[in-house]
Amino acid sequence: MEPWTFLNPILKIFFYISVVGTAGTALFIFHFRKLMEKENILFCNKVMLTSSGLGIFVCIFYFFSIAGNFGGNIMSAFNFELLKLASNTTVGQVTILTIMAHSLICCTIFTVNKVGRIILIICTIGIVISFAMVGHSSTNGYLAQLLLLIHLTCISYWLGSFIPLRQLCKYSNFKEVSDVAHKFGVYAISYIGLLAVSGIFYSYILLGDIRNIFATTYGIILLIKFITVNLLLLIGALNKFKYVPMIKTNPERGVSKLYSSINFEIILTIIVLSLTSLLTTSFMLPMYN
């Protein structure tokens, strides 16, 4: 068995983490900058810097893996001719552009001028769009690509908010936590609604037939992912309707419960991203089986 069979899913997990950390934190800052103190905005910037740094490392490794896949062994990843061939593929070119986008984010993340912020926004959007340029959506038409972009944007907002919210629970005053958490829940209704609708239709396009969710390995793993996401939704509902309101009546207990809940959500997030990685790297779509 080729080494890339094991390495590519691992690379994809870290790539997803980097994208969620970068795009999700950017959305968090966009929505809640006015409600946060400078220290928390600085923390969010550091999260984006770390996430983009991880993205650069993973994308470089992934580019070498393209050459490695051509040759079938580890040493092929360092073969100049195979690397040159990798740079001529769509996947290779998108990977190079993604490295550049992450690099520009690292260079502009702490900028205060408008030009820097515009570059930051364009690069963040570009990283999300890169998903639609390669992979399953690119072979299933424009509708699939649009649904994927909507899905990725919404899931970045949702999952990418966990680390900033966790930071707020640990170091901020109760009022700031309450205000941000409440607003997060208000926006989440729209984001998660779009997430669910786009995810269902996108999955249906990939499955080809709803019966494939039970009849194929791809479908079964997708079903497990759905179940995990629904568990995240249940925890999110518990946060919105119980723990966030509790912050106003019993601040210390409410923040403590929210903090613990977010920690569990982060664990489930890693599971969701791991399952997504398997679906995009290790299993063929049912229509191609």
Q: Structural class of the helices, strands and pairings?
A: mainly alpha
Helix content: over 70%
Round the mean pLDDT to the nearest integer and report it.
Answer: 88
Shape: globular
Number of folding domains? 2
User: What proportion strand?
Assistant: under 5%
- Helix count equals 11
Mind summarizing the main beta sheet?
Answer: none
Number of E-state strands: 0
Q: Regions with pLDDT < 50 over 5+ consecutive residues? A: none
Task: Explain what the structure shows.
- The longest helix has 34 residues, at 38-71.
- It contains 11 helices and no strands.
- The mean pLDDT is 88.
- It is mainly alpha-helical.
Write the layout of secondary structure elements.
Layout: H1 4-32, H2 38-71, H3 80-87, H4 90-108, H5 114-133, H6 141-159, H7 162-171, H8 174-207, H9 212-215, H10 217-249, H11 251-281
Q: Main attributes?
A:
11 helices; mainly alpha; 289 residues
Structure described in brief:
The protein is an all-alpha fold. Helix content is 83%, strand content 0%. The protein has 11 helices and no strands.
